[in-house]
Amino acid sequence: MKVLVVDDHPLVIKGIISILSCVKDIERIEEASNVDEAMEIISKIKPEITIIDLYLGREDGLEIVDRARKNHFQSKFIVLTSSSRKEDFERARDMDVDGYILKEAFAEDIIYAFKVIAKGRKFYDSLMIEPRFRMMETAPFDELTKRELDVLKGIGKGMSNQQIAKELFISEHTVKKHVSSILNKLGMKHRTEAAIKANQIFNGIR
After folding, report:
1. 2-129 fold
2. How far apart are alpha carbons 65 and 112 in whole angstroms?
3. Which of 129, 41, 118 is nearest to 92 (CA)?
4. Is the pLDDT of residue 6 over 90?
5. Where are the chain's structural domains?
């Protein structure tokens, strides 16, 4: 697939390209630093996925989404931004972008999100879509990392380590390390305890 990365910071673009170099299905990555450059490249190569920053200097990155759709380009759009502001996220979500990822995310999380979106699903950073979870009076859960929360959800669904590894695009060994860390942080001895608690915590949260 062809990918376009749009950001006004060259070092950020290089970092994103480096991360995406691990994705086998990508055959070409182009880069742009502003709206006009992005639109020119989109019209020429028609990328399957376009990754944009919300703020391109004084320009609005979402203008790319708007203009591309008005011209009937079929690219999927991922917002990769440092902004965790509710209004920015809601503005992007209202435009039905395919992904919203914070730049503070780990490389493996960005790769996971990219693969999910490439398959036709949406991916919104859990920090943006799970305020209910953050507001709960569950202090031990606040210590879990985003990836540990993903693993915990899998445990709650009764998934094996192998199934969780496949779902999250990580190794089974990494899953085992996360499970051990989760049990330690939650003060639990058995996986079953974590599964029960996960179902209580994530009930109604997707």
Report:
1. Rossmann fold (3.40.50)
2. 22
3. 129
4. yes
5. 2-129, 131-202
